[in-house]
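When time allows, look over one protein, given below as sequence and tokens. The question is which stretches look regular and which look disordered:
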Amino acid sequence: MMSSPLARKAVAFGASTVVLAGMVAALAAGPAQAGPKVGQVGPAAAQAGPKKPQPKVSVSTPKATQRDYAGACPIKVNVSAKISVKATGKTTLAYRWLHGDGSKSKVKTVRIKGHGTKTVTVKQSATFKDDVKKGWEAVQVLSPRKVTSKKGYFSVTCAKVVELKEVTKVSVRAWASPSSYVGSCTPGTKIDFTGLIRVSDPSWVRYRWILNGKVVDYGKTKVWRSKKVGFGISPRSSEHGYAVLQVLGPDRAYSNKAHYKVLCKSEAPATRVAVTDLVTATNHDGCKVGAHAVVRSTGPGRVEYVWSLNGQRVLRGDTVFNHGGKRTVTLPEKVLTGAATKGGKITLTVFGPRNSDSITQSYAACEAPKPTVSVSAVTVAGQRNEMCADKRGPGVDFKATLTSTGPTTVKYYWVVNGKRDHNTLERQVNGSLDVQWGVGGTHGASVTSGSIELVVISPNATSSGAAQFTATCPAPSTPAPAATPSA
């Protein structure tokens, strides 16, 4: 049966009271009930005449386009049936739909012309918002002969709408370090497995490590964008296999297989480690200190090391020797503060399969950075025209500014026309200081021109760059004409 929404829907298909009542009354009325018309005899005469045979009518069982629907609702169900009428001329076909909830559609009519069997396909549709366990539709022909079809059944099962939440996407990969090891298998022999977890949104990530098919470690960590997680094993015998990092939430993901291989060999003789050649370096620019040293091993094995600065551990690391040899390990520059800026000691301690070793070296105290000097471009400070009277070009005076970041002795010299003009000069500078230089006029010319440059050689090398100059003697003044005596 239709649900209550269907009943409301069926009202739209319900018969019009006025139209249906008129049709049914007209169809139900027999010849004896109808009043005599003009030109006709009374009831007795009508009954005496022959009856007009009614055409044969048949109706197929209605069929739904989706007999058993299951899915999202609302859903529109279309139903159709075929009505066959053996017509003998103009025939009016009147029919209506009967619904499973007891309601009826309004009466519809179709005009049929011609003779013989005519088939008319009739259709109707209804929209359902809820489940219909056993709905049906039937066609009732009212004219020219009253015939009702069999019931055509259908069902509607509305699926629940599930809102899918956006899930954080997770990707993961894993690797072994070292992936292959040959040597003595001791408690210090270790294979580390590292996994990199990446997320599309910051999330708490639950994960576990699977080693050769068995779960060996669990974890939960906050990942903002990417993060490394890991675990390690210490094989005591030769073996090979793989580890997989599995993410359990918020999304599920598996890494690649991180394969490893261990071949244990008896050590003869025992591997021993040592550390030598520790060198420290103080960087006075920013007051930092770094160091490097050489780690040596007589055979294969894993060597761990610890850097200490004034007794405090600042860095741990390890390196693997597949054979005996040496490796350089480095302490990146560390910023010094407090008493450490006045100098101290750096220690490197190494741990091997059978022994350990250490070395200590002092480092220099930080020094204030030395003052540096810059120089401005050279400019013309003045022109000496008195030389023009000796048939020479004018003398030219120049000026440049030396600027230092602190008190210092500045050594410099001048270059005129590409040639060093004088011995090295010295001035004490703390801040900015103007220095001057001059050149004589060119002989036999009224113009003095060329290039001038100031070059600093200490405390740092710098230059003003060459500047071009031109100076011209002023034009001689014209004497006033002599006075002419009056007559």
